[in-house]
Amino acid sequence: MPLASPPRLIVFDLDGTLIDSRVDLCNSVNATLAQLGKPTLPEAVISGYIGDGASMLVRRAIGDPEGDITDEQYVTQALTFFLDYYRIHKLDYTYVYPGVLEALQAIRYTHPQTLMAVLTNKPVHPSRDICDHFGLSPFFFQNYGGNSFHTKKPDPHGLEALIAEASTLAGHAITPAETIMVGDTDIDVLTARNCGAHSIGCTFGLKPHSLEDAPPDHLAHTPADWLAFLVNPQQTF
């Protein structure tokens, strides 16, 4: 189904889409490993673990991606330390990608009726705190995290919930066909597909290589491409 021009709802991923949080996440993982007496990991390795939420990030880092460790207390200890450490250090090196604020301002100015929101697998409180800190929150009517629902992306439940909320705010039904999911990983693309929404993949993010596994409808090489796509939905970058 063709995209409505302009779309009525744009939902953004956070890490690798709006912000570069790689260093703070990697430092928090390595601090956790050191606390557990395990060897630290290269940043490139940890970066490949990002995207499925804090619990999976920690499980992958400690060598338990499939949940095979039977000592759940050990896993909980690792996750608790990681979250506590990250809560303190989440803004040490994290920054907003160049052009993001300008792109959001331009979308708000040129398409004032288009609603925007955040849907991330990062826990909701640090997600909202980071967006507050960098002045991103005023652009979004909602910011949901990986612990906001019983499932995470790529399950479509969170995106469906945002579409329902946006419909209430707009005073009319917004359909998935009028919705765009913007993210830097295959997880975001699959979330859009599972919901029936459109997708934009950001090649400047943390895991752009994963977009090869689930090609998005369009690619954005810079945040400015978001606006270019809204102006001309048939454009390719």
How widely separated are the two ends? 20 Å
Strand-residue proportion: 5-15%
Share of helix, binned: 40-55%
The whole-number mean of residue pLDDT values reads 92
Give the strand tally: 8
* CATH-assigned fold name of the largest domain: Rossmann fold
Number of helices: 9
What is the CATH C-level name of the largest domain? Alpha Beta
The shape, in one word, is globular
Strand order of the largest sheet: 5-4-1-6-7-8
Question: In sequence order, what are the helices and strands, one letter per element?
Answer: EEHHHHEHEHEHEHEEH
Q: Any idea what the CATH architecture of the largest domain is? A: 3-Layer(aba) Sandwich
Low-confidence stretches: none
Give the domain tally.
2
User: What's the CATH H-level homologous superfamily of the largest domain?
Assistant: HAD superfamily/HAD-like
Radius of gyration: 18 Å
Which secondary structure elements does this structure contain, and how are they paired or packed?
Layout: E1 9-12, E2 19-20, H1 22-35, H2 43-47, H3 54-61, H4 72-89, E3 95-96, H5 100-110, E4 115-119, H6 124-133, E5 143-144, H7 157-170, E6 179-183, H8 186-195, E7 198-202, E8 218-220, H9 224-231
Parallel strand pairs: 1-4, 1-6, 4-5, 6-7, 7-8
Antiparallel strand pairs: 2-3
Helix pairs in contact: 1-4, 3-4, 5-9
Can you walk through the features of this model?
- The chain is globular and about 55 Å long.
- It has two domains: 9-20 and 95-231, 3-Layer(aba) Sandwich (Rossmann fold), CATH 3.40.50; 22-89, no CATH class.
- The chain has helices spanning 22-35, 43-47, 54-61, 72-89, 100-110, 124-133, 157-170, 186-195, 224-231; strands at 9-12, 19-20, 95-96, 115-119, 143-144, 179-183, 198-202, 218-220.
- Strands 5-4-1-6-7-8 form a six-stranded parallel β-sheet, sandwiched between helices. It has a two-stranded antiparallel sheet with strand order 2-3.
- The longest helix has 18 residues, at 72-89.
- The two termini are 20 Å apart.
- The protein is of the alpha/beta class and 237 residues long.
- The protein contains nine helices and eight strands.
- Strand 6 (179-183), helix 8 and strand 7 form a beta-alpha-beta unit.
- It is 41% helix and 12% strand.
- Helix 1 (22-35) crosses helix 4, helix 3 packs across helix 4 (72-89) and helix 5 runs parallel beside helix 9 (224-231).
